[in-house]
Each structure stands twice: as structure tokens, then as C-alpha cells.
Amino acid sequence: MLKPHRHLPPGGPGVEWPRCFAGGVTAPRPGVRALARLAREGAVRPRPEGLRDVPRLPFEPGPLPPAGPGTVAVTWAGHASWILRAGGLTVLTDPVWSRRILGTPARLTPVGVRWEDLPPVDAVVISHNHFDHLDAPTLRRLPRATPAFVPAGLGRWFRRRGFTRVTELDWWEAAELDGVRFDFVPAHHWSKRTLLDTCRSLWGGWVLTEPAGHRVYFAGDTGYGHWFAEIGRRHPGIDLALLPIGAYEPRWWLRDVHTDPEEAVRAHQDLGARRMAPMHWATFVLSSEPVLEPLDRVRAAWERAGLSREDLWDLPVGGSRVLVP
User: Fold this and answer.
1) Among 2, 237, 308, 323, fewest CB within 10 Å belongs to which?
2) Taken in order 245, 249, 251, 254, is the CA torsion positive or negative?
3) Residue 247 — left, alpha, or beta (φ > 0 → left; ψ -120 to 50 → alpha)?
4) Separation of alpha carbons 320 and 61, rounded Å
């Protein structure tokens, strides 16, 4: 388990973080044999028949719902990008508005909300530094005074790009902005952006709690494991869990870092969350499962678990739901 590094106030310039966070990795990284197998099998993209349903991917952009100080509302912009409105704030999670990211084909679906239609952005939260979650062209669109809540070790990346209000957090640390609490929590994943920075910054998810006590959990990017039950124990009463359901095949390659739809439902139950909204699918081709399969499987898993259909918020890209009016 990663040793916590406590500091007050939460990390800013001058905080000494560990040089490497590899102690937080919960599964071994793939070795040479696994890489050779992946190259041999070529199983990194869907087969042609798995791409036939691209026109059927749910894309229904609509206006953002009104959101006053007492409202909690979410809008899925695609992949892991959400417009989360809580406590009077508009928060973007892992904002990626680019048509392409490094190493992948162009988006399967457009961004669900045009950038020019966004309200003023009060903060961003970042789960980790992989290119499909940390998109430099999108972040360049933001005013440099926008508060950025980021994993430990990633603050330098933001400050080098001119951001002036950067808060770095270790697992289980928290910060507050205008009455909304931002808790950084663990995930079963890792970080890497270049050939020389493996696990040099942390990774995780976020629990946002607005002044009235309503909680939204944003998982970021994660495999299945013990952290979900611990997050639920430390943050009881999660009203909505934003959980990844895509980029899971081949399973032998991605099991440790990406939940499949059935594991996402299990994670929702471990968290003790009331509702779940799937994400991390229908946007970029990152793996080999058929593009529409994650939605079909998560709906089937939800039904098998005997959970209320109204609590599965399987939104289309661009769709919104209001948790608290």
C-alpha cells in the first residue's frame, strides 16, 4: 500500500512528493512475454463486425439543465469527461474535447457538449496522466486561473503550462472550493505519459461532496479490486457513481486496469452507491470488444443483480440527469 504523505495545505509548489508512486500499483505491469503476445494476436481493435454498430452508438446532445446552488446535475460529454454541477460550481472531469488523442483513431462520437456552450468552468479534476484523460489541447482552452485538482506528482505539468491554482493530493486527502469538498481516492491503475515517467505521478478517482451532503464519485480509470469497498466505507452515502465499463478486451491484457461491465456493477455494489452512470465507452477505440457491447452487458448485469432500472443512468453522449433539483 502506498504510504501517505500528509501536508497542510494540500500540495502546491515546493511540496516534496516521492519520485515514484509504483508502490501503489496493485497488479504487476505486463512484461515482455505479454507484449509479445499482444503483438502476435493483434487484439487491440475490434474486428470489422465489431465496428458495424458505430452508427448506433447513443449520441443525443441537449441543453445543459439549469443548475443553481442547490442543484446536483451531470452531463456526459463522452469517455471520462463529465460536466458536473454541484454546490453552484461547474466542474469538468478529465476533460477531452479533442477529436483525436495520441495513438487512437478519431472519436467515434462527437463531444456531447460544444465547448462554447459550457458555462464558466469553476474547476477541473484529473484522475491520471494517460492521454485519454489528460488532454493538453483541451486544457489550453481554460483560463490559467481555473482551479485544477490533480494527483500527487502531476502539479508540475500544470504549473509549467501556466496554471496558477493547482492542488495536488495524495490518496485519502481532501481540499475544498467554495463549500464543495474534493476527496482524492485510490484506483487500480497506473500512470505513464512518456517513456521516462512511469508511475512518476499518482492516479485515482474523486468524491465530490456538495454543502448539503450529496456525493458523486468519479472513478477515473480503474480495474476491479478492494478499493471500492474501502471508498464506500470512508465515504458512505454516495448518491451517484460514475464508473467505467469499456476498454476491457482482451481480458488477459486489460483486467488489472479496466473494469468490464459486470465488474463495474459489482464495484457499484461494493461502494454502496445509490445510482450508477456508465462511462469510458462509445468514444474512443482503445480495445477489441465490439463497440456497443459494453452497454448491452452492463444492462444485463444490472438486471441480473436485481437492481432498480431507474438507478442505472445509462446516458447517451450529451445526455444529462439531475440528481437534486
Assistant:
1) 308
2) negative
3) left
4) 9
Query: What is the amino acid identity at position 309?
Result: R
- Mean pLDDT, residues 177-201: 95
Give the Cα separation of 26 and 296 in Å (integer): 29
d(CA 256, CA 222): 8
CB atoms within 10 A of CB 51: 16
pTM: 0.94
- 101-153: pLDDT as tens digits: 988 889 999 999 999 999 999 999 999 999 999 999 999 999 999 999 999 99
The count of residues in the chain is 325
- Whole-angstrom CA distances from 42 to 36, 47, 290, 297 are 10, 10, 15, 24
How far from chain centre, in Å, is Cα 69? 24
248 touches 289 (CB < 8 A): yes
Which residues are bridge partners to 77 per DSSP? Answer: none
What SS3 class is residue 122? coil
